[in-house]
Amino acid sequence: MIGPVQTSKTLADVKYEIRGQLSRKAHELERRGYEILSLNIGNPGLFGFRTPETMRLAMIENLGQAEPYSHEKGIFPAREAVVMQQQDRGIHGISVEEIFIGNGVSELIDLSLRALLNFGDEVLVPSPDYPLWSAAVALNGGVPRYYDCTSANGFEPDLAQLESLVGPKTRAIVVINPNNPSGAVYGRDTLNQIAAIANRHDLVVLADEIYDQMVYDDAEFVPLATLAEESVCLTFSGLSKVYRACGYRVGWCVFSGDLDRAKDFLHGMELLAALRLCSNVPGQWAVQTALGGFQSIRELVSPSGRLYESRQVVIDRVEASPYLTMCPPMGAMYAFIELDERFDEKLEDREFACELLEQKHVLVAPGSSFNTPYSNHFRITTLPDTNTLHSVFDRIEALLGQYA
Q1: Which stretches of the chain drop beneath a pLDDT of 50?
Q2: Residue 334 and residue 300: Cα distance in Å, rounded?
Q3: Which residues pair with 215 in a beta bridge?
Q4: What is the DSSP letter of 305?
Q5: b or e along 267-304 (b: 16 or more beta carbons within 10 Å of the residue's beta carbon)?
Q6: Are 102 and 108 in contact (CB under 8 A)?
């Protein structure tokens, strides 16, 4: 008898539960007629946020030039705009040759790790992490080693523990700042110490900065590349979050720092970029307008801005809850919320998320799906309007009241 077709063994250590079993269950409930409040994904367009009109017009006006393949690294105006942005931030010594445009940051993470890793190489990844990083490391033959970012430390890294994880096979360190899922924005001193660790141990720095302009109150975003000038540093960002253009699938990766030592790495990225021909060309025509135009994100994250007000509702509701605690998110578009210790033996995060979906029709992401050793957190996006968020927390309180 012929058996089933087996999947690759490389998938054994890959998970992406943000769009996993719970999400499929939510779709089933929607097909049965239930209205689900989905807070599991940071997708601005689903919550009424629009891409700036100037970006849409830039795409439309250049559609005639978007039909052929572009250069494998991306169109020149897009890469030039990224160079100018990086130079304005104090990152020097780069040109368009060090810029890669990809189908979102996700593709570039995969390409960069594929170009860097040999089987068994280790990459230092934060816990909690954005699970794509762990998955991409595993898919490319590497081993993620997790450094702790706990609520007791405001979700900033434990730097001593981080450095203790460095071994002979360690090749790189991943830094997600502003952080997904915790909303932490790392201080300059923390980033300086991370850069020093990378330099001492000859590690490639992989800086995921997709939420770079999405910071609140007195939080300051510091580009890691400005501090990691003696190492090889890759900075990842794109249009999806700050510019609310997830569907355009446009991200970029910037090589900076010690570029002489990065020559082989750059050639590997060029080869992989050429093999996939190019990234989505129409979306690339929005980059120059996005980076050079009016930065509407500043209004959204300032007091009275919609993102700020929604975040404040989450902070207020958690503070008022007898069942929840949280480090207030200082950046990004998420809240990483902790269940009270009274639920430790009654309700782990996955069970809580399942019950919340089935009973209250709210979809959240269990905290342990972000590669944590604990199971008492959940993540929501702060994108919904304030009324929706109040409804969500009313339902959460009602469910937890049953278990309390």
Answers
A1: none
A2: 15
A3: 331
A4: S
A5: ebbeebbeeeebbbbbbbbbbbbbbeeeebbeebbeee
A6: yes
Interhelix angle 263-275/104-116, rounded to 10 degrees, is 130
Of 293, 251, 253, whose CA–CA distance to 56 is shortest? 293
Largest alpha-carbon pair distance within the chain? Answer: 66
**What pLDDT is attached to residue 3?**
79
The helix/strand/coil state of 96 is helix
Q: What is the DSSP letter of 45?
A: G
Q: Which domains does the chain have, with CATH numbers?
A: 9-49+299-403 (3.90.1150.10), 62-292 (3.40.640.10)
Residue 20 pLDDT: 75
**DSSP state, 381?**
E
Give the per-residue pLDDT at 55: 95
Look up residue 327 and give its DSSP letter. P
107-124 tens-digit pLDDT: 999 999 999 999 999 999
Q: Give, in order, the Cα–Cα distances in Å from 372 to each of 42, 129, 332.
A: 20, 8, 19
| Residue 238 structure tokens | 């794109």
- If you search the block for the tokens 């039909």, which residue do you land on? 67
pTM, two decimal places: 0.94
Cβ-contact 385, 310 below 8 angstroms = yes
HSE (side-chain half, CA atoms, 13 Å) at 280: 19
Q: For the sheet with 324-326, list strands across it.
A: 324-326, 334-339, 377-381, 365-366
Using CA atoms, how far apart are residues 306 and 318, in angstroms rounded to an integer? 19
User: Which tokens hold the place of 287?
Assistant: 């980059």
CA atoms within 13 A on the CB side of 319: 9
- Any residues with CB less than 8 A from the CB of 31 and at least 6 apart, and which? none
Q: 122 has which bridge partners?
A: 143, 170
Q: Give pLDDT, residue 78.
A: 97
The token duo for 205 is 């720095």
Handedness of CA 29, 34, 39, 42 (dihedral sign): positive
Closest CA relative to residue 70, chosen from 101, 97, 111: 101
Contact 239, 45 (CB under 8 A): no
Compute how many other C-beta atoms are within 10 angstroms of the C-beta atom of residue 72: 18
297's enclosing H/E stretch is: helix 297-301
pLDDT digits over 348-372, tens only? 999 999 999 999 999 999 999 999 9
Residues sharing a CB contact under 8 Å with residue 371, sequence separation 6 or more, in sequence order: 125, 127, 128, 129, 131, 134, 144, 146
